[in-house]
C-alpha cells in the first residue's frame, strides 16, 4: 500500500494518475487534448534537463512566471519530481515587486513563458546581477544570458528521474510558494505544504465530483484556486480539465458546450460578467451541473440561476495561507459555508468585535477580544493549533507575525487573523461581509493599499497618498481610490499620473478615482484614516474636494463630473 506521504508527492507530480489512466485526457487547451501519460512524460523531460545539468537540486526553490498553458503544469510537475519547491509568480506584477519575490522565497532560478520574456527586459540585468538564472520556454532567444528550455526538452529523455528525489518524510514540508497581496505592501510568499496541497486537491471530491466530470478552469494558475483546487482536484479524481488561457465571457458557454463541461471554477466577478452577456435562446442548453468558487454576490447568484439554470453553486471560503475553510454544500444563496458541532470541535474559530474607525479588534478592560452575537458582523479569527497550523510566509518572520493575533481570550493564545468580517446566523450559515485593514478585492485580485501607496509616492507632485477601496454599484469588490496631497509649488498632472499608474501597476491595482485633499486625517495611533473616506465614496455632488477618474479614452485622470459619475453608475463608462 502506498503511504500518504509518498502519495501526495506523486499526486502533485501527476504520476499516480498517469500510471492508472495513462490514455485518459487530462488537459484540453485551445482545442488540443493531452493525456495523463503525455503530461507525465513531458514533465519528465523538464526534470531530466535540469537534472542532467545539475542546475537545481532537491530542496531548491524555482520561480515560475507563466500564463495558463499545459507547459505551466509540465514545468511545475517536472521541478516537483526533482524535489524542488516552486514559487508561482503573478504574471501581472511589475519590476520592483518581481525582484522582491525572489528575495523573499530564495529562488535562484526562474522559468518564464515565451509570451512573457519581453516583460522582463527592464530587470534582466538586475536578475543576472543577483545570480538568478533565467530559463525561457523558447528554442532560441536574443537576450544574452537567458537559457532556452524548449530545445533542450526536445533532446531530453522522457524517462522518470529517480523517485528518491521527490521523496518526502513529512507532509508539513513546503512544496509551493503562492504569492498573495497583504497588509505589508509588497507581495508575500505564502508557504504551501504537501498537507495543504492534498487538502485543496480534495475540493471537487468533497462536493461530489467524480472521474466522469470535465472541469473548466479559466482562472490563473498562479493562484491556488486554479492550481491546487483545479489541477490538483482534477488529478485526485482522475477527471479532465479544460484549461483556458484567459477568461472570456463571450466564449465561456461555447467552450462548455464544445467540451461537455460539467463543473466550472469561478470567482464572483466571473459570474457577473456572464450574466451581463446578451441573452440567448440556448442559455440553459449545456451539461454544467456545478460551479465551485467564491465571492458570488446574492443578486448575481439569483440572476445566474435564472439565466443558465439551477446549476449547483458551491461557495467555499479560505485564503491561500489560512488555516481554516468553509464550504457551502447545499447551495444556500449568500452563504460561504455552514458550520456544525463537529466542525467547531476541530477548528476553533470565532467572530470578534471590530472597530472600523480605529481599524483594530475591540478589547475589553481585561485586554481580551469580545465575540459578537449571532447575526452580527465580526472579524473572523481561527485558533492556531496542531490540528489547524498556520505555516506563514517565506522570508521575514515579521510577515508571519503580523497575521497572528495573540492574547485573544487568554494570555498566550494565538489566532490567525483572516482580515475578513463575517456573520453567522442561527442555523450556523456563515456569510462574508467585508474585508478590513489595508487590503481590498477588485477584479478577483487582492489589492495591497500599501504597495499602491508606495508606487504613487514616486510621482514627483504627490506629497502623500492614502489608498482605499470604494463600492461601485453593479460591481464585485471595491474599486481603488486614492486621496492625495499635492506638494507645494506643484500642480496635479492627470496625464503624468495616468502614465505612471499604467506603467508600474497591474490593471486591477490602479486607482480608478483620485481625491485631492489639503490634509490627511490620522487615527490615534498615527495611521491614515480610511473609514470616513471609504464611507463618503466618490460622488462629486456630495464631496467638495476635487475628484478625478481613470479615463482610458483620454489616457489621463480627468475631472469626475456629475455626468461622468452617472455614466459610471449606469455602466456606459466601463471601469
TrEMBL record:
Q: What are the recorded Gene Ontology BP terms? A: long-chain fatty acid import into cell
Could you tell me which residue ranges the AMP-binding enzyme C-terminal domain spans? 451-527
Establish whether keyword Lipid metabolism is in the entry. yes
One example of the protein's molecular function in GO is: nucleotide binding
Q: What are the subcellular locations of this protein?
A: Cell membrane
| Leader peptide range in chain numbering | 1-18
Q: What class of enzyme is it?
A: ligase
Main localization, broad class: membrane
Record field: catalytic activity = tetracosanoate + ATP + CoA = tetracosanoyl-CoA + AMP + diphosphate; a very long-chain fatty acid + ATP + CoA = a very long-chain fatty acyl-CoA + AMP + diphosphate; a long-chain fatty acid + ATP + CoA = a long-chain fatty acyl-CoA + AMP + diphosphate
Look up the record and report any one GO term of the cellular component aspect: plasma membrane
What EC number is given for this enzyme?
6.2.1.3
The record, for PANTHER family, names: LONG-CHAIN FATTY ACID TRANSPORT PROTEIN, LONG-CHAIN FATTY ACID TRANSPORT PROTEIN 6
Q: What is this protein called?
A: long-chain-fatty-acid--CoA ligase
State the species of origin: Alosa alosa
Amino acid at each position: 500500500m502506498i503511504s500518504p506521504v509518498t502519495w501526495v508527492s506523486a499526486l502533485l507530480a501527476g504520476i499516480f494518475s498517469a500510471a492508472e489512466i495513462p490514455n485518459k485526457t487530462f488537459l484540453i487547451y485551445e482545442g488540443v487534448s493531452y493525456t495523463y501519460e503525455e503530461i507525465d512524460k513531458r514533465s519528465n523531460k523538464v526534470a531530466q534537463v535540469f537534472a542532467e545539468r545539475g542546475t537545481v537540486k532537491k530542496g531548491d526553490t524555482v520561480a515560475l512566471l507563466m500564463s495558463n498553458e499545459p507547459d505551466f503544469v509540465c514545468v511545475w510537475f517536472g521541478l516537483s519530481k526533482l524535489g524542488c519547491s516552486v514559487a508561482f509568480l503573478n504574471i501581472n506584477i511589475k519590476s520592483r515587486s518581481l525582484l522582491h519575490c525572489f528575495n523573499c522565497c530564495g529562488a535562484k532560478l526562474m522559468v518564464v513563458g515565451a509570451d512573457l520574456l519581453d516583460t522582463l527586459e527592464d530587470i534582466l540585468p538586475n536578475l543576472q546581477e543577483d545570480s538568478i538564472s533565467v530559463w525561457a520556454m523558447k528554442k532560441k532567444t536574443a537576450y544574452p544570458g537567458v537559457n532556452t528550455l524548449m530545445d533542450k526538452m526536445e533532446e531530453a529523455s522522457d524517462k522518470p528521474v529517480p523517485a528518491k528525489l521527490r521523496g518526502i518524510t513529512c507532509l508539513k514540508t513546503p512544496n509551493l510558494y503562492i504569492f498573495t497581496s497583504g497588509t505589508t505592501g509588497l507581495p508575500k510568499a505564502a508557504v504551501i505544504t504537501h498537507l495543504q496541497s492534498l487538502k485543496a486537491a480534495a475540493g471537487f471530491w468533497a462536493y461530489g465530483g467524480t472521474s466522469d466530470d470535465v472541469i473548466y478552469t479559466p482562472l490563473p494558475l498562479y493562484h491556488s484556486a486554479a492550481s491546487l483546487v483545479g489541477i490538483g482536484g482534477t488529478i485526485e479524481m482522475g477527471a479532465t480539465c479544460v484549461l483556458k488561457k484567459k477568461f472570456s465571457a463571450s466564449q465561456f458557454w461555447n467552450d462548455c458546450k464544445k467540451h461537455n463541461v460539467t463543473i466550472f471554477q469561478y470567482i464572483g466577478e466571473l459570474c457577473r460578467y456572464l450574466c451581463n452577456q446578451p441573452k440567448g435562446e440556448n442559455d440553459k442548453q449545456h451539461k454544467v451541473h456545478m460551479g465551485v468558487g467564491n465571492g458570488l454576490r446574492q443578486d448575481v447568484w439569483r440572476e445566474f440561476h435564472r439565466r443558465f439554470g439551477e446549476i449547483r453553486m458551491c461557495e467555499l471560503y479560505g485564503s491561500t495561507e489560512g488555516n481554516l475553510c468553509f464550504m457551502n454544500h447545499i447551495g444556500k444563496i449568500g452563504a460561504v459555508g455552514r458550520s456544525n458541532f463537529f466542525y467547531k470541535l476541530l477548528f476553533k474559530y470565532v467572530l470578534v468585535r471590530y472597530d472600523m474607525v480605529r481599524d483594530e479588534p475591540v478589547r475589553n478592560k481585561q485586554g481580551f477580544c469580545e465575540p459578537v452575537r449571532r447575526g452580527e458582523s465580526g472579524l473572523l479569527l481561527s485558533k492556531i493549533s496542531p490540528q489547524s497550523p498556520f505555516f506563514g510566509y517565506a522570508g521575514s518572520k515579521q510577515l508571519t507575525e503580523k497575521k497572528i493575533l495573540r492574547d485573544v481570550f487568554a494570555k498566550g493564545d494565538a489566532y490567525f487573523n483572516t482580515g475578513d468580517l463575517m456573520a453567522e446566523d442561527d442555523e450556523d450559515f456563515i456569510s462574508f461581509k467585508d474585508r478590513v485593514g489595508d487590503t481590498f478585492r477588485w477584479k478577483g485580485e487582492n489589492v495591497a493599499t500599501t504597495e499602491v501607496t508606495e508606487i504613487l509616492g514616486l510621482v514627483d507632485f504627490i506629497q502623500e497618498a492614502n489608498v482605499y477601496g470604494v463600492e461601485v454599484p453593479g460591481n464585485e469588490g471595491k474599486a481603488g481610490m486614492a486621496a492625495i496631497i499635492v506638494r507645494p509649488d506643484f500642480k496635479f498632472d492627470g496625464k503624468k499620473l495616468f502614465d505612471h499608474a499604467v506603467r508600474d501597476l497591474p490593471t486591477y491595482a490602479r486607482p480608478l478615482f483620485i481625491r485631492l485633499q489639503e490634509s490627511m486625517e490620522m487615527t490615534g495611533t498615527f495611521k491614515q484614516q480610511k473609514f470616513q473616506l471609504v464611507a463618503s465614496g466618490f460622488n462629486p455632488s456630495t464631496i467638495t474636494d476635487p475628484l478625478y477618474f481613470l479615463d482610458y479614452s483620454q489616457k489621463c485622470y480627468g475631472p469626475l463630473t456629475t455626468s461622468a459619475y452617472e455614466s459610471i453608475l449606469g455602466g456606459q463608462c466601463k471601469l
